[in-house]
Specification:
The chain is mostly helical. It is 83% helix and 0% strand. The chain crosses the membrane at residues 27-50, 56-75, 91-108, 114-135.
Length: 140
């Protein structure tokens, strides 16, 4: 058996990671968590706007968000077995864009609330990047 150089070992590991077989249940879990996070973030933006000025309402909505997020993370940790680089990139892009839109929404709502006719569709749009990533994960 020949010893591999560190560079050869890294290359073989990268190739093995790219070829990893992903089960259908991994696709369901990965897509479910990614889409679920997008929906939670969008719902949290809407809830923060609805409960603006009410510490109790905002606290309850943030508590619901925290519990739902914890359940998603628990589900992922208990069911998700393997992921590849493509999935990681898809998740990072979807989550990153969703969070960017969330921050824009918080700033927009804080400084110049446009009214629900415009802001409600924006809240839905916040979830779109994560949902697109979830669909791509689902399809493989």
């Amino acid at each position: 058996m020949n010893a591999l150089s560190p560079e050869e070992a890294r290359q073989q590991l990268a190739e093995a990671s790219d070829r990893a077989e992903l089960s259908r249940s991994d696709a369901v879990v990965g897509a479910g968590v990614t889409g679920g996070i997008g929906i939670l973030v969008a719902a949290t933006l809407a809830a923060a706007t609805v409960w603006r000025g009410s510490p109790v309402g905002l606290g309850v909505s943030m508590g619901v968000y925290a519990v739902a997020l914890a359940l998603l993370m628990w589900w992922q940790a208990s069911k998700f077995r393997i992921s590849d680089r493509r999935w990681r990139r898809r998740y990072q892009w979807g989550f990153g864009l969703t969070m960017t839109l969330y921050v824009v929404g918080i700033l927009w709502e804080s400084f110049a609330f446009p009214g629900w006719a415009i802001f409600a569709p924006f809240c839905v749009a916040v979830a779109v990047p994560a949902l697109v990533s979830a669909v791509k994960m689902w399809r493989g």
